[in-house]
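Inverse folding, one chain.
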């Protein structure tokens, strides 16, 4: 499944335009602790987190993730969104909780 397909399937808002929408997703990871994500997330994953500061982009680039998914319709500073576009990191946002989005992501990836 590609990032753009996931966004459409789950009704997610794409905050970064066309960045990485054609990128394949292989897995997902939910955590708000940056060191945990660095230690455990797999390449080409979707990272679900409530963190919204600029450091999430460094983690995303370091671990080569497919997209960051922000739950509960939480707001991001425009600076973070602009930097994400520059760094080619897709940021998606959904209205559901991290728990609910994790389950939906899991099911979407299992269905293919």
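Residues assigned per position:
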């Amino acid at each position: 499944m590609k990032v753009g397909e996931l966004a459409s399937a789950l009704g997610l808002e794409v905050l970064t335009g066309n960045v990485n929408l054609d990128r394949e997703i292989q897995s997902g990871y939910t955590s708000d602790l940056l060191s945990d994500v660095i230690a455990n997330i797999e390449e080409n994953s979707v990272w679900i987190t409530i963190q919204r500061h600029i450091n999430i982009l460094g983690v995303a680039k370091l671990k080569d993730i497919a997209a960051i998914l922000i739950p509960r319709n939480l707001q991001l500073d425009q600076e973070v969104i602009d930097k994400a576009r520059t760094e080619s990191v897709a940021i998606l946002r959904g209205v559901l909780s991290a728990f609910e989005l994790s389950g939906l992501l899991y099911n979407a990836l299992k269905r293919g």
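The chain has one domain: 3-90. The chain has a mean pLDDT of 97.
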